[in-house]
Amino acid sequence: MKTRILAMALLIVAGLILAACATPTAAPTTAPQPAAPTTAPQPAAPTAAPQATTGDPYKIGFVTSVTGPASSLGIPERDTALMIQDQVNKAGGIKGPDGAMHKIEIIVEDDASDASKATLAAKKLVEQDNVAVLIGSSGSPASLAMVETATKNSTPMISMASASQIVNPIAERHWIFKTPQANQPVTAVQLDWLKANGITKVASIGVNNAFGKDSRDAMNEQFKAAGIEILADEVFQPGDKDFTAQLTKIKALNPQAVIVHATPGEGAPLTVQYHTLGLTAPLLHNHGIGNKDFINLAKDAAEGVMFPIGKLLVANSLPDSDPQKAVLLKYIADYGAFTNGKAPSSFGGHGWDAVEIALAGLQAEGPDRTKLRDYFENQVKNFVGISGIFNWSPTDHVGIGKESLVLVRIKDGGWEYVAPDQYAAK
Fold this sequence. Notes:
Elements: H1 2-21, E1 58-64, H2 71-90, E2 94-95, E3 101-102, E4 104-110, H3 115-128, E5 133-135, H4 140-152, E6 157-159, E7 176-178, H5 183-196, E8 201-207, H6 210-225, E9 229-236, H7 244-253, E10 257-261, H8 264-276, E11 283-285, H9 292-298, E12 306-309, H10 325-338, H11 346-365, H12 369-379, E13 383-384, E14 389-390, E15 406-411, E16 414-418
Parallel strand pairs: 1-4, 1-5, 5-6, 6-7, 8-9, 8-10, 10-11
Antiparallel strand pairs: 2-3, 12-15, 13-14, 15-16
């Protein structure tokens, strides 16, 4: 019995061992089913364009001669500034470095062509209104009067007047820039015309202020160096209307040409009296008479007057390749539309240049006065303006020269471009 039980146990154990050693047969797997197609990603629902935040207005102080003897300069400057303000604000303002949109606020002050009033206006704008940049004024005496306030308050200032003393010496004019051509390159163009016509004896008459002195200084330096004799260098006071004494003296000297250093307020009546007294020598003004007011005031006496000036007055005569032409023509159209048909002037152009350069600085740097000054000095490069193509630098706060000027002759109540190869044409 025991033997049979043992034998059965051994059989069971042997069976278990054989089962353990046998190679198992894997159960057949079901073929993988293709994954259910995924839905193509849908574009995100369009979100509304983020609205730019609105920051505080950027303030620009603008001193100009809306009244007084220099008003024919100041009114187009003011109108140009207000035109740009209107254009920019209707477009939503300018985007500052903070990413916000800022309207511009141009605060206009009339200095009444008076240097002391220009000083008071500058102080108000800088110290009370806290403008980021100061622009002004129309005339050199008023601009020079503003320099101290701008410098004392570390505020960048852009002048619309031409005397070189406004920006020189540079070491003392760290904060001051200007947009009109200096008198020195204007004189250089006059000199080119004199040489082309073989003229060696001239007389001069000019206003006795900073603008007139700067123009006369440039004349004396360059003409004498070129061997041109200045028979008389007469002066008159700002606001004068009678020039009989000076012109009678000049007539007796029989010059071959007469150079005038003036703006329309005095330059127009002087030109009328010049012809009334029978003077016939060619009359060369400087760029101080570059607006329609001079022609309107001098009337027939303006015919034939020549003067160097920026390209604005003869923009239509420029070749299409001129880099300024498109800018000039747009300004002419914009200004006419804004002023209901008024003719533009180079003085309004000086205002356009000043405001547009200020806006470029505000867009890049915001209203920080020190950063703005540094931007003007180092970043205003190849800026295509009305008065020229500007390149300001640590050694040049004017940035345009003789290349920006053309010689213009008044003809039939308008302006005619005189090309250099026509200087000697009769």
